[in-house]
Structures are given as C-alpha cells and as structure tokens.
Amino acid sequence: MDLGLVGLPNAGKTALFNLITGAAAEVAPYPFTTREPLRGVADVPDPRLDAIADVQDIPRRVPAQVQVVDIAGLQPGAGRGEGLGGQALGRLREMDAVVHVVRDFRNAEVPHPASRVDPLADAEAVDLELVLADREQAARRAERVERAARSGDAAARAESGPLAALVAELDAGRPARLAPEAAREAAAGLGLLTAKPTLVLVNTDDPGPPPDAVAAYAEEQGALAIALPVGVELELAGLSPEEAGELAVELGLGEARGAAALVAAGYGLLDLVTFFTGSGPPEARAWPVPRGTTADRAAGRVHSDMERGFIRAEVVPWDALVEVGSFARARERALVRMEGRDYVVQEGDVLQIRFAV
Description:
By secondary structure, this protein is α/β, with parallel strands linked by helices. It is 42% helix and 20% strand. The two termini are 29 Å apart.
C-alpha cells in the first residue's frame, strides 16, 4: 500500500510520516521544513502472521508493508506547479491513495499560514489546488486527443468524450472520483490525484472523532475522514510499549491508535484483504490484495510463474491452521479446501499454490 501525504504547511505531515515509518525527519515550527519529498517504508504488524509462523516453527516472517511519500506543504498556486509542494505533486500520482492532513491542533509556537485554525477551510483549500493540478493535466491530454480525433483517429474519438466530461467536472471544482464512470476511467489512466481514494486525516490535540463539518465535507467529496492526535502519538512512540500502553489508556486513546489506526483506515479505504502463505519453512508472509481478487491473481502476487501455471489453491482459514498446528494436520482433518482459479480470496486465508510451468 502506497500513501501520499498532502496538506498545508505546518499541518503535521512530516510528524505523521515519522509516526508511520519510525523515521526522524526534521519537524520544526516553520513552513517548508520538508523541502525535498521524503519516502519511507514501514511494516504492517499483523499478529495472525506471527501465530501462523509460531505454531509451525517458521523462522522468517515477512509482513506487508506500507510506503509513504511526504512532500512540502501546499500553498496557493500549487495546482499550477508553484512552490515546493506544487513542484512535487507529480510524485504522488503513482500512489495508491492520498492522505490529506488538515490541522486541528492549537500550538502558538507553530504558526498557521493563514493565522487561524480551521480544518474545514484547510481541507477545501488543498482540495482546490489538487483539482487545479488535475485540470491542467486533463486539459493538456484533451487537447492532444482532440487534435488526433480531428485527424480521424478512432481511439482518440472514443477517448474525447470522457475527457471532455472529466474536464467539465474539474472546471466545476469537483474531484475526478465523483465524475461519471467513463470520465473516472480516463482520470485513473492519467493518475489524477483527485481520482485516487482519499483519506482526510484531522491532526488533533485530543482523541475523538473528526469534527462533524470535516466528516460531512469528506463524505460529500467521496473521501473518508478520521482524527488522530499525531503529536501525542509520536511522543508515545518514543516510550516503551508498557509505558505507552498505560499512558494511552489514561489519555483515552482507545485500541485503534497511532500508525496502526492510519494503516487500518488505508486498508479500509482501498478495500484490501490479507491472505497468507506459510504452510511450512522457510517463511510465512502476508499479502494484501483488493477485495474480490481471485486465486490465480493472488498467486500472481506471489510470483508471476504461479499465475501463469496455476493448477489449484489449497486453502485453510488462518485460525483453523493455528488451532490444529500445521497444514498437514489441517488436511487430515478435512479443513483444507481445494479451490480453482476463480475462487475469491477471503480475509485471513492461508494459501498453498499448486502450479506447473
């Protein structure tokens, strides 16, 4: 899962980057501490993976990973490529999803670029820049396609209508993900930022849900919203697990918190499920895939040869495997199912792929 962080200066994007990745990128109370895009990777903890490995004495565990890219804060004009953030927006076009960080924390030592704290206004301001950036890219593509269509290119004529609808949607200030289906497909092909699944993350002082106005706005924009006290979580991340757990309880942070809460929200946003491989040594591994992925496509995530030569998948739920202690015992107890290429992989499946190439 690849996440791109956007937001105004001093919204807390880099603090969030550090929280997710465990990095130590500079965080300072002035704009543009982040000048060059930051890129980091973090493991996705999953106790099911350890349980699968522990019960079978598998030494190597390979968790899923999340990649995060943080760019400089966006300023007015970023949608036209102005400023450090505007120049770096293109780095986010290959991301799976966009995390839009908006500020709702009060700290006089960290000035807001507009000298006020208004998370809804910040969300609207950044979304406008993203729409403008997408509009410029879509319009350039539409001009090229229109010229090709006039010369008789049939493919260009077919693309022209959806692109025109897409540009009209962006001209109206609406994100590409709300456009008609054909226009959304054109937007996805261009990697438009407002076509991507989007999570509005409200950076707060205290635990709790996002402000009602921000939650309602996110829903109108086809996005999701969560709140996270990033500064508090970053402080807790520097403590021992025992101390952090006790303090989290005192602060009322709940069970789904910190980087794990963001990762869970990202999985939900992208509608991912996790399957596992690990029917014995040398390794057990977690594989996130879109919900609805078939067994042969899941095999292709492991190795292209497995998809090409797919024969069948032997499938057992992870908890059933852990309960009996091994894949062999699961077979003996008729817990393993033989599934063909069209089987839709379910959350928590452990797969053993049979293939021949």
